[in-house]
Amino acid sequence: MEITANEARDLAQWFRDVSVAIGAYRFAHWDSLTKDQRDTLEGIEWTLLNYSSDLVTQAVGLTLDDAEASLKHIQEATAMAKKAVETIQTIKKILVISGAVIKLGAAIVSEHPGVIATAIGNLRNAVAA
Predict the structure, then answer these.
(1) How far apart are CA 37 and CA 28, in angstroms?
(2) pTM higher than the cut 0.90
């Protein structure tokens, strides 16, 4: 399955949504986070925003041959991550989930369906843990 321009925009939006959720967490917990934790979260926000931007231009034409790396699975995994970030109250869990989202973004940009499928599974595991 080749990802269309509209689907690429959807991917970009999903990564942006997770980034915004992390930013909201950072500001909502500002006083309870250390400076290093705030800086780490800000770095994650920027990484995910950059993936969002990159996905608009790079994901068009990406072929997902592996059923486990389908666009639907990517959508489900990023939606789970966004919801988890919005409801989780521990910085450690936020960092684990956001790291898995970053790895998923890198996998998508790599254009390797098997790597994408693995990253989707890892993100699901991070959210479930």
Answers:
(1) 13
(2) no
